[in-house]
Specification:
heterotrimer; A alpha/beta; B alpha/beta; C alpha/beta; A: Four Helix Bundle (Hemerythrin (Met), subunit A); Heat Shock Protein 90; two-stranded parallel ribbon; disordered N terminus; disordered C terminus; B: alpha/beta; Rossmann fold; 11 helices
């Protein structure tokens, strides 16, 4: 009864390795998940929020600039008014001054005007200073004061010593000075007005420029942002449609990060990776389930084949027990030797079957096609000859080696051979040929039967999953579809030609010692 | 010298043909009357046994799956025990679902005249013919589900039988005569191999009954006194469960070796479900 | 002449004959062993055996064919089939073709002895088939 523990132990080990394989694969998906998530988050939503915030801030800045500008215009207008007033006071003063000299009118009005002008100037001294500069303002003020002084002197002379008016020399001296200062003041005031007007027009121009420039900048910003947003969404969508096509074509490697940040699409990528994980597990289950079915088919041949060595062992042991005493030493030895040999034979049969049934990780190796086909045929030979069918193997000389997953390809050939045997009449034959394919750097393996052939109307659907012509319970309809999947992953294809009534030919075309496109990690 | 296993969708027809066949051949009868004996032996209510043969488990009706499987195993073991005696006609005990691969068991399916049955149902329940047909279709669906759940077989699948007789065309008496004649074919004669197969089934059923009394998820196969038990267990319980199974199974007469396998293999299950 | 049960044993596994010949001879039978069915058929053409024990799956000829040809020539002969490929359909086919019994490999020498004893009884001969020496294990 200790035997039990051993078998249970083996079972555990098997289970462990299976679990490990599934776990390995989950780890890959988990790794890409983490890679996807570890990037800085910058979602489409963020991008839109940031763009809106920027537009708002820009509008705020423009508004602030415009408001300051308007205040500036307002104060400039106010000042211009003062300057105008100031200039007109001075002009008035000069007009009275002229009248005095021409008609001898009084000087009080002129004095009053110039006084007012001076008051205006002093009151707005700061502004004047800002526009004219301190020094100019001082000279300006000095001129007004000088002019006022001259007018004062003139008035005193007129009041106290009218006779002095006879002294034309003195008068003309004062008149000249007055004229000189008056003219200078008028010129300065007009200069001031001109300057102030220029400044105002500049401020107005700036206001216009702010409007135009801000509109243009806003337009450019919005255009650029729209472009970036569309490009981002569009390129990602394009990438994902690429993934979808890739997955549909059977390449189910997980999506790895392509950008430096993560966003809404990252979640989609993770979801797709989860889906891939699921698909992967299903495909593995499908391939394995199909293999187990093939194993089931083989049991009739291989497992029953076991009964022969077992029978030999059983008979020998019982006879050994029965006749132990009567048998000679040599006879006993011979019988035990038989037992040892037959045990070895049984072991080989089981090893063969287990080799095939074992669910193994994908191992890519370079191998000889002839050997693979011979092994495959020997696996089914007994069972096939039971149904009276011959299998002929022809392999072209100097055929190059194949690079790929030996076990999975064996599954493909086994499946095709068993199908061919099923299609053959009792006493018929199945030909297996390996030869260079028409395509350069490819080999073709043909499995030919001379059975009923495949009707034209179902020829196109034989590779579809779950399509079967076998009676219920006999076939899953998965063999050819799984086989085609395996061959496609090796970069090859399965072709079929069939003539109703005279048989079918399945041709597996495989590339020579090139690395397969993608082998999923199962 | 052989075994006749009859299955029908109509209990009355089954009964009639079974009894008639037993009369013609002189074979022993093995039918629902046995339930009383089984009930007494295992201390189960007879109604529960009848119900287990009829319907799927339901907690509402006080028939948890665990008990259901146990009841069915009890019936199976007792029926197989009696069938080992040869010269037996059995019906109404689901033997068609577990007497498998026995070359000397003639398996017969009786198809009732569906129109006649619909009429009978319509009269019995006072409903329209259309309604009666629906009731029959539903009953049939339930039977398929029951047989799938209990033995993983669809009992309406004709491929399961050696002989299918349509009562729409053949009278019950003719059917019984046909069965009696067919069972005389050399093909259905017992031989060392088929007797051994039956003995294997019997031993497996006995062990299964013993184990299901206290456990669940048990599958048993046997060959020449060697018993292979397949069950499920968490890793840490394996050692304990193995010992318990070996203890229990070893106590069944005829068992000289017990092997325990744990089947937590999802791929294999997937493969089996596709098979 | 003391009648002894004459048995022809045909199996392409040499060990089967090597072990069963002494086993059956011990029980008082005359046993001829063949590994090649064609040679066995030649022998059967010449001589009537009481019992023929034959394997079913052999390369040169099918055991069922052997069965048919033996019964065609010697209808009285009891043919016992032994096979590693025991399946219900094959068992039924063998019985239908007139096999006396059908045994699945692997079997014990006693299993075969018991079947042969049954066959001897069915032959109705006075032959004494001695099952002594067989110890139930």
């Amino acid at each position: 009864m200790t035997e039990f523990n051993k078998s249970a132990g083996d079972h555990n080990q098997d289970e462990d390795s299976r679990v490990r394989k599934v776990y390995d694969h989950m780890e890959i998906v988990e790794k890409s998940r983490q890679a996807l998530l570890s990037r800085r988050r910058f979602s489409v939503r963020h991008q839109i929020y940031i763009a809106y915030a920027l537009v708002f801030l820009f509008a705020l800045g423009v508004a602030a600039a415009l408001i300051t500008n308007i205040y500036q215009i307002k104060s400039q207008l106010q000042f211009l008014e003062f300057v105008n007033e100031f200039a007109s006071e001075i002009q008035q003063a000069r007009r009275y001054e002229k009248n005095f000299f021409l008609y001898g009118t009084n000087l009080d009005d002129a004095l009053e005007n110039i006084h007012l002008a001076k008051t205006i100037f002093v009151q707005n001294a700061d502004q004047f200073a800002a526009i004219l500069g301190q020094k100019q303002q001082q000279t300006f003020l000095a001129r007004i004061s000088a002019y006022e002084d001259l007018l004062d002197r003139l008035k005193q002379i007129q009041g106290r010593k009218p006779q002095l008016f006879k002294n034309t020399k003195l008068l003309s001296k004062i008149e000249d000075d007055l004229r000189k200062y008056g003219k200078e003041m008028i010129d300065s005031a007009q200069g001031l007005i001109k300057k102030e007007k220029d400044s105002l027009s500049r401020t107005l121009d700036r206001s216009r420029d702010i409007h135009i420039v801000s509109l243009v900048v806003l337009l450019i910003f919005l255009a650029v942002h729209a472009y970036l947003l569309v490009a981002r969404i569009y390129s990602t969508l394009k990438r994902f449609s690429g993934y979808a096509q890739r997955i549909a074509a059977g390449d189910i490697t997980p999506i790895i990060p392509k950008r430096r940040f993560r966003d809404e699409f990252t979640e989609l990528a993770i979801a797709i990776n989860e889906m891939i994980k699921e698909m992967d597990a299903r495909e593995a289950a499908l391939i394995q389930s199909h293999k187990m079915r093939a194993v089931g088919t083989l049991t009739a041949g291989v497992a029953h084949e076991l009964n022969n060595p077992l029978n030999n062992i059983m008979l020998t042991i019982h006879m050994l027990m029965e006749d132990y005493k009567e048998l000679s030493e040599q006879e006993r030895f011979e019988m035990m030797n038989d037992i040892a040999n037959e045990t070895g034979r049984a072991k080989n049969i089981i090893a063969n079957l287990l080799d095939f049934a074992r669910e193994s990780a994908t191992t890519i190796e370079t191998f000889d096609l002839r050997k693979l086909l011979e092994d495959t045929i020997s696996l089914v030979r007994k069972q096939v000859s039971l149904s009276g069918i011959r299998i002929e193997l022809q392999v072209a000389e100097n055929l190059p080696s194949i690079h790929g997953d030996r076990q999975k390809l064996q599954q493909v050939f086994l499946n095709l051979i068993l199908n061919a045997v099923d299609a053959s009449e009792k006493g018929g034959k199945v030909q297996v040929m390996a030869l260079p394919a028409d395509k350069p750097n490819h080999v073709a393996i043909k499995i030919i039967d001379y059975g009923k052939g495949i009707p034209k109307h179902i020829l196109s659907s034989i590779f579809d999953p779950f399509f079967t012509t076998k009676p219920k319970g006999k076939g899953t309809g998965l063999g050819l579809s799984v086989s085609q999947g395996i061959v496609a992953k090796h970069g090859g294809q399965i072709e079929v030609t069939s003539e109703e009534g005279s048989g079918s030919t399945f041709t597996v075309v495989l590339p020579v010692t090139t690395f397969p496109k993608e082998i999923p990690l199962i | 010298m052989s075994i006749i296993v009859i299955s029908a969708d109509d209990r009355a027809a089954e009964d009639q043909i079974g009894s008639r066949t037993a009369e013609i051949t002189g074979y022993g009868r093995l039918e629902y009357g046995l339930l009383k004996e089984i009930a007494a032996k295992y201390d189960i209510e007879e109604e529960k046994l009848a119900e287990a043969l009829e319907r799927e488990p339901s907690l509402l009706r006080g028939m948890p799956p665990k008990k259901w499987y146990y009841y069915l195993a009890c019936i199976e073991a007792e029926v197989l025990e009696r069938l080992a005696a040869d010269k037996m006609v059995t019906w109404s005990l689901a033997a068609h679902l577990y007497v498998l691969g026995i070359s000397h068991a003639l398996r017969v399916r009786i198809l009732s005249d569906s129109e006649k049955m619909a009429k009978a149902v319509a009269e019995e329940n006072g409903v329209s013919l259309q309604k009666a047909r629906k009731i029959l279709a539903k009953r049939q669906r339930q039977r398929v589900q029951w047989s799938q759940a209990a033995y993983g077989q669809d009992e309406t699948d004709p491929a399961l039988y050696d002989l299918v007789i349509n009562l729409g065309q053949i009278d019950p008496d003719e059917a019984a005569a046909t069965i009696a004649k067919a069972v005389g074919y050399r093909k259905f004669e017992p031989m060392t191999y088929s007797r051994k197969c039956l003995a294997n089934l019997l031993l497996a059923a006995k062990v299964k009954t013993r184990l299901l009394e206290t456990m669940s998820d048990i599958d048993v196969q046997s060959r020449d006194g060697r018993v292979i038990v397949t069950t499920k267990a968490l890793r840490r319980d394996k050692q304990k469960k193995t010992l318990a199974i070996k203890e229990l199974a070893g106590s069944v007469e005829g068992v000289n070796f017990v092997e325990v396998h744990f089947n937590n293999d999802i791929f294999k299950e997937a493969a089996q479900s596709l098979r | 002449m003391a009648e002894r049960l004459e048995i022809l044993l045909l199996d392409d596994e040499p060990i089967v004959g090597k072990r069963l010949k002494p086993a059956l001879e011990k029980s008082g039978c005359k046993v001829e062993v063949f590994e090649n069915p064609l040679e066995a058929m030649d022998r059967l053409e010449q001589k009537r055996f009481d019992i023929v024990v034959t394997d079913i799956r052999m390369d040169e000829m099918d055991g069922l064919q052997v069965l048919e040809r033996v019964l065609a020539k010697w209808p009285q002969t009891k043919v016992i089939m032994i096979t590693g490929y025991a399946m219900m359909a094959l068992a039924r086919e063998s019985m239908e073709k007139g096999a006396f019994d059908f045994i699945a490999k692997p079997f014990r020498p006693d299993d075969l002895r018991r079947v042969i004893a049954k066959a001897a009884k069915a032959l109705g001969s006075s032959i004494d088939f001695n099952t002594a020496g067989s110890k139930q294990s």
